[in-house]
Specification:
The structure is a single chain. The model has no long low-confidence stretch (mean pLDDT 83). By secondary structure, this protein is an alpha+beta fold. The protein is built from 1 helix and 8 strands. The protein has one domain (1-152). Strands 1-7-8-5 form a 4-stranded mixed β-sheet, covered by helices on one side. The radius of gyration is 21 Å and the shape is elongated. The termini are far apart.
């Protein structure tokens, strides 16, 4: 009997890391899939506001959560006109312990927050109401159309 327990313990201890990796991978994929669905709705709203023109406004509710064991570290929407122009049409998703993933708005919609200067909107897990407004800013003498992101809750 002790030999059977030892064999089971050895087999179990050698397979547990593979099972844990598989569960983590599944959890990461389910979290990313959920977030992509939420963020695609957000992107569609931003594109609509951008297309309608200056002054158009829409309020969107964005649910940032992880249905699995892998938690959301942060989501950064848009960027800074001066520092990170390449990130303006990008949403960056960072899960705990994973590399940053990028979602690009297609067609590109520049997004930023103007509260306290132009910067990305950083979110953690939770339910967020975000006001989207098409605005124009003059940056280095050039008029830039963008979607301004204002956190309401």
């Amino acid at each position: 009997m002790p030999l059977k327990i030892l064999i089971v313990a050895v087999v179990l201890s050698s397979t547990l890391p593979y099972i844990a990796d598989a569960l983590r991978g599944y959890s990461e994929e389910s979290t990313l899939s959920y977030l992509e669905g939420e963020l695609n709705q957000f992107i569609t709203a931003a594109q609509t506001v951008y297309r309608v023109g200056v002054g158009s406004v829409r309020v969107v509710t964005l649910s940032v959560r992880s249905p699995g064991v892998v938690s959301v570290e942060r989501i950064a929407i848009g960027g800074d006109f001066e520092e990170e122009r390449k990130y303006l049409p990008v949403i960056r998703v960072k899960l705990v312990g994973e590399p940053e993933k990028f979602l690009v708005t297609e067609p590109n919609v520049p997004m930023t927050t103007s509260e306290g200067g132009f910067s990305p909107l950083n979110l953690q897990e939770g339910e967020w109401k975000i006001r989207l407004e098409h605005k124009v800013a003059v940056v280095r003498g050039v008029s830039m159309h963008y979607v301004d992101l204002t956190l309401l809750s």
